[in-house]
């Protein structure tokens, strides 16, 4: 095994260990407190595996035609499915740009029910938000 591959494996194992450690701590220490004080009844739902396992996200919001799509295209160094740039409002919907093996468009309501994606908590906004 090459030195770089071994180092990458070690880093992956440490990340997995830290992630698993955070999950275990949450479930054993914090979640019981949240349930005892009924935190989920008046604030956010409890964390799920997807909340720990997925990569961090950045939210880009702003007025129409201020360069949000252009900014994302610049960062990606390419267009992404559903992106259009123009002087009039063109992307007036919720879009999640994620890394994957192939380009595809997944409807918002499908992302919302996928337990491996961190979008399940968007359910209170309803299908009209996710289907736009």
UniProtKB/TrEMBL annotation:
<dbReference type="InterPro" id="IPR031692">
    <property type="entry name" value="EHD_N"/>
</dbReference>
<dbReference type="GO" id="GO:0012505">
    <property type="term" value="C:endomembrane system"/>
</dbReference>
<dbReference type="InterPro" id="IPR030381">
    <property type="entry name" value="G_DYNAMIN_dom"/>
</dbReference>
<protein>
    <recommendedName>
        <fullName>Dynamin-type G domain-containing protein</fullName>
    </recommendedName>
</protein>
<dbReference type="InterPro" id="IPR027417">
    <property type="entry name" value="P-loop_NTPase"/>
</dbReference>
<dbReference type="Pfam" id="PF16880">
    <property type="entry name" value="EHD_N"/>
</dbReference>
<keyword id="KW-0472">Membrane</keyword>
<dbReference type="Pfam" id="PF00350">
    <property type="entry name" value="Dynamin_N"/>
</dbReference>
<feature type="domain" description="Dynamin-type G">
    <location>
        <begin position="52"/>
        <end position="132"/>
    </location>
</feature>
<dbReference type="InterPro" id="IPR045063">
    <property type="entry name" value="Dynamin_N"/>
</dbReference>
<dbReference type="GO" id="GO:0005525">
    <property type="term" value="F:GTP binding"/>
</dbReference>
